[in-house]
Structure of Sugar ABC transporter permease:
Amino acid sequence: MNRPSLRLRLAAHGFDATTLLVLPGLLVMLALFVYPFFYGIVDSLTPREGAWYSNYTRFFTDRFQYATIAATLWLALPVTIVNLALALPIAFRVRLMRRQRLLTTILVLPITLGTVFVADGLLTFLGPQGWFNRTLILIGLLEGPVKLTNNYWGVFASLLITGFPFAFLLTLSYVTGIDPAIEQAAATLGAGPRQRFTRIFLPLLVPGLAVTFCLAFVQAFAVFPSAVLLGAPAGPTRVISIAAYQAAFEQYDHSMGSAIAMIMGIVELVVVVAVLGLRSLFYRGPAGGTKG
């Protein structure tokens, strides 16, 4: 009996010509993500002086450094929640509109502007001599300008503008993916708008909303340009990315900078795992109500 060829034996184990198409993507992943990640771990464990864990000890014994975790969470979590709270009702409204593409294009426009351009616009609009303060003073609502830039609220506004299109597009894709026949069937059986939302839409949307929250949170947690241009980098908006930058490029301690970047990644991972864990409390099973 002739033995099957090598090609047939590999195909029997799932390795064929189609599988080879994965190789370019796999190489890119290894070069751009896996290698830098492990390089960063090794670099963070080889400090300029002291034991292998001294970078982490220095970070968690210096209040000026470890306070950056709370400062970053204080920005990223509220911004993510507000973006999601705004994106959900707007996505529900947009899915029923005829000119959905036009409105979607307008809503995602800020994502094309870039962080620096948005920061420059906010400095002009919300600054002490900006249009916002001038208008309110002119109509008598304010006696003097309100400080809305170079503090927490300036960074918050920037993250809100640049993060909303991202949250909106993801939420819209999940909302439009739910089969309208399910809602129509529930309405036929007498379910009101609130019941249809809480008992049909929300359980089906929870997995998608959890993923959207995680991605939007990671994006907001990595804030850097906005915190420098619109915040107070030496004060309340000294976020963890600024601490990593200062260690690596101002103090020329790249090992400490890598350690701070690793801590940053661990905090993000903890939040993401917690959110994905909470998701199972609301819904278990596949989202079988989506179209297709």
Observations:
- The two ends are 46 Å apart (CA to CA).
